[in-house]
Amino acid sequence: MSTIIENYYLERNIPKYLLDQKMKKFDSNPDILKEFELWITSRKYQMENPVEIEGYSARSLSKISQYLDGEGAFMMLIELREKPSQALKKIKNGFKIK
Question: Which residue from 55, 62, 63, 87 could staple onto 79, CB 3.0 to 4.6 Å apart?
């Protein structure tokens, strides 16, 4: 478990059950976890050899939508890996909320 990420969520008063869900996703994706830690500590996206899934990196996702700046970009990378068709559909539809 990453204390950097855990502290990031605790500072934002994320409920325990949601914190546990998010941490489980990051623990299952250690490459994305490392990039998110870098972003938390520097507020900069990985520039050299970033994690790229389905043609997207956290940085490129952050440019698509204001909702994907920071944590949202990394969670979307995880979704692209775990549920690519669902995630690509969200991106294509512009993250419309029903």
Answer: 87
